[in-house]
Specification:
Helix content is 42%, strand content 13%. By secondary structure, the protein is of the alpha/beta class. Among the domains are: 245 residues, Type I PLP-dependent aspartate aminotransferase-like (Major domain) (Aspartate Aminotransferase, domain 2, 3-Layer(aba) Sandwich), CATH 3.40.640.10; 68 residues, no CATH class. The protein has a seven-stranded mixed β-sheet, with helices on both faces. Strand 10 and strand 11 form a beta hairpin. Helix 2 runs antiparallel to helix 10, helix 4 packs across helix 5 and helix 11 packs antiparallel against helix 15. The relative contact order is 0.12. It binds pyridoxal-5'-phosphate. The site of pyridoxal-5'-phosphate has 13 residues, from helix 4.
Length: 485
């Protein structure tokens, strides 16, 4: 593809862009149960206006755009108050949960390097329900992950296992509030106490739950302590672009005090250009996400969020009841916020996802990992609340339809091929090509019904699954063929 020799007229250009969306999830109808956090069009309009207002301002240099420094400091202050922090808490606005977590891991690593020079192979202790972003950060930063099991029924971190995983190289313990997959709050009080006992840092990942949990508590849910009110919690992450409904690209990372945060900040004077001092990973940063986050918080307001939380709590309870009423389904864990995971011992959940898709819903498959079997994830949105009964009705119908659908024969073929190869952590390119062909994947395009693909991925050992995903992504991001519209 090339830049057109003459610029297109505006109408044609926007028409083309609109046409690009044809294959996207139609999330505005409230029938998409992952990926989007949709408060409705009125709030969305405010978010968009604020975003475009600050679109071109650059937070690269906070002294050049004091408006952005002010927005960032206010967004951090709101988060600190919201999460039981005092005036000593500091933090930064980041592009998302992954960046917030990345920075918390970097800070822990560099804090340890500074204070504990005997640490040469820094390690973080991470329950297996914690977000993949911890693994990604560790991978990028040369930090080791000690993965610890969780309780097989509650899916909460097993603190005894975390204790056993601590070594002389440990720098930080991690807990989630809430975990994405099962929507539960880890025993933060115990994890933080364990960290204190060993002189370690403790990060609480509130990317998903940090914003909404305090409202759920006020709405009557039993929410365990999870924030800076807990002694020993040293850092937290919280996303505004999830259930605060900011535009995507909005999260905060917080530290109990600035002595810790200084290890996050990077400055470079080893080049010929402008002064570079970055508090976060990004350097040039649009003011759009900050302004949009600030605007949504001030537009919806505390009472507005509480009302939303009340609706979400009631809807989540109703949805759990509905799922419990379908004998073939069972919940995995007891959700402490508005995300649900459920599985089945008699029906293939991947067929169930396809059946739901055929009925106009998007529900998200999650693969098995250690003690968590394959399951279906539902994130409840304000816009989805009205659909609870219809969703449950279609779940029942989908269970009936999926019951007789078989597991793909490709699963057996792949398992046999892997068994013949012995222990492997990567998939051989030849086998990968065969596999893609057998599953109907060509040019990165996925088949309409995904059950076979998901069944195969689910059956693979995690390391092999990762290698398949890497190859797939490597194929997916390529230049479009000449003339492709
Ligand atoms: C608990 C938790 N932590 C971290 C993240 C990563 O956030 P992001 O996708 O904004 O990078 C997520 C995303 O869903 C999450 O649920």
């Amino acid at each position: 593809m090339q830049i057109p020799s003459k610029g297109l007229d505006k109408a044609a250009l926007f028409q083309t862009l609109e046409a690009y969306r044809a294959g996207d999830l139609t999330w505005r109808d409230g029938r998409t149960w992952a990926y989007v956090y949709d408060p409705g069009e009125e709030v969305e309009a405010v978010v968009k206006q604020a975003f475009t207002m600050f679109l071109s301002e650059n937070a690269l240099d906070p002294t050049a755009f004091p408006s952005l420094l002010r927005l960032e400091n206010e967004l951090v202050s709101i988060a600190a108050h919201h999460l039981g922090g005092d005036a000593a808490v500091v933090g930064n606005f980041t592009s998302g949960g992954t960046e917030s977590i990345f920075l918390a891991v970097k800070t822990a690593r560099d804090h340890a390097r500074h204070l504990r020079p005997s640490i040469t192979r820094p390690q973080i202790v991470v329950p297996e329900t914690a977000h993949a972003a911890f693994h990604k950060a560790a991978h990028y930063l040369g930090v080791e992950v000690a993965l610890t099991p969780v309780d097989p029924v509650s899916f909460k971190a097993d603190v005894a296992a975390m204790r056993a995983a601590i070594t002389d190289q440990t720098v930080m313990l991690v807990g989630s509030a809430v975990s994405y997959a099962h929507c539960v709050v880890d025993p933060i009080v115990e994890i933080a106490a364990l960290a204190q006992e060993h002189g370690l840092l403790c990060h609480v990942d509130g990317c998903m739950g940090g914003f909404l949990l305090p409202y759920f508590r006020r709405a009557g849910a039993a929410v365990p302590d999870f924030d800076f009110s807990v002694p020993g919690v040293t850092s937290m992450s919280m996303d505004y672009h999830k259930y605060a409904f900011a535009a995507k690209g909005a999260s905060v990372v917080l530290y109990r005090d600035r002595s810790l945060r200084r290890h996050q900040i990077y400055a470079c004077s080893q080049w010929t250009g402008y002064t570079l001092a970055n508090a976060v990973l990004q350097s040039t940063r649009s003011g759009g996400p900050m302004a949009a986050a600030w605007a949504v918080l001030h537009y919806v307001g505390d009472e507005g969020y509480l009302a939303i939380a009340r609706d979400l709590l009631a809807a989540t309870r109703a949805l759990c009841e509905g799922i419990r009423g379908i004998p073939e389904l069972r919940l995995l864990g007891e959700p402490e916020m508005n995300l649900i995971a459920f599985t089945s011992d008699s029906v293939d959940v991947f067929h169930l996802c396809d059946e739901m898709r055929a009925r106009g819903w998007f529900v998200q498959p999650q693969f098995s990992f250690h003690r968590s079997r394959e399951n279906i994830h539902l994130s409840v949105n304000p816009k989805s609340v009205r659909w609870i009964d219809a969703l449950v009705t279609d779940l029942r119908a989908s269970v009936a339809a999926a019951r007789s659908l078989p597991v793909s024969p490709v699963v057996g073929m792949v398992q046999a091929a892997l068994a013949a190869m012995g222990p492997v952590s990567e998939i051989d390119p030849g086998l990968m090509r065969q596999l893609m062909g057998a599953l109907g994947i060509g040019d990165g395009r996925l088949p309409e019904r995904m059950a076979a693909v998901n069944q195969v991925l689910n059956a693979l050992p995690p390391a092999v699954r990762e290698s398949v995903l890497v190859e797939y992504m490597n194929d997916l991001y390529t230049q479009p063929a000449e003339g492709e519209a």
